Amino acid sequence: MLWFVIGAANAIAETTITLNAGTAEPLITAEGGGYYGELAREIFSRIGISAKVIRLPSARSIINANEGIDDGVIGRIAGMDKKYKNLIMIPVPVVRLKFVVYSLDQKDSVENWGSFKPYSVGYIRGWRIYEKNLPQTKSLTIVNNAEQLFRLLMNGRAELIMFEYYRGTWWNEHLGANAHIIGSPVAEKDMYLYMHKRHKDLVPKITEAFKAMKQDGTYRKIKDKTLPPYMK
């Protein structure tokens, strides 16, 4: 009997939670590092569980989490559990994303969604925030990924491109685009961690561990280490 109890305890201790993320550097790297990777490992280590984060295409990531192929998904907006009924949201934001506008000309100016009308604009296919809010523009080009987006700007095929700040900063430096953020963010959104409902018993523990990280400064240290500060 004692052997059985010890064996069960060891099995729990050896459990690895697999989360996925439908994004890219610097939020998550191909190797499972970056902000989301380090954050998840710290959260789960505090409740005695190892964790890893894998990178998937955005649409596939939420489906895998909902179907239980993976244990959860990190970096999604609030309310995803209304559509994906097998998911439970951890009610503490993992990060606040800023959706910004890049230009090669610092004289360009946008103050609201209506300000885009006289410009040629580009954004990545499937980004609902732009599909819903962007009015008619001088011209619009929709691309498939971040590199194509910045190449539009660099090759003069778009005067403005719309993207998320952390990933935009990474690609701007990676490609040497020398783009500038103009105006204030057009939107900001808190992002959350969701767990598959089979882990519902872990949700209070995860929540408390994450709150403790924010209180003791660990959250800030991970963020400062892995993400660039917001600078226009």
Characterization of the model:
The protein has 232 residues and is of the alpha/beta class. The chain folds into 2 domains: 131 residues, D-Maltodextrin-Binding Protein, domain 2; 91 residues, Periplasmic binding protein-like II (D-Maltodextrin-Binding Protein, domain 2, 3-Layer(aba) Sandwich), CATH 3.40.190.10. The protein is built from 9 helices and 10 strands. Strands 1, 2, 3, 4, 5, 6, 7, 8, 9 and 10 form a 10-stranded mixed β-sheet that branches. Helix 2 packs antiparallel against helix 9. The longest helix has 14 residues. The protein starts with a helix and ends in a 6-residue tail after the last helix.
Give keywords.
D-Maltodextrin-Binding Protein, domain 2; 9 helices; elongated; disordered N terminus; 25% strand; 232 residues; ten-stranded mixed beta sheet
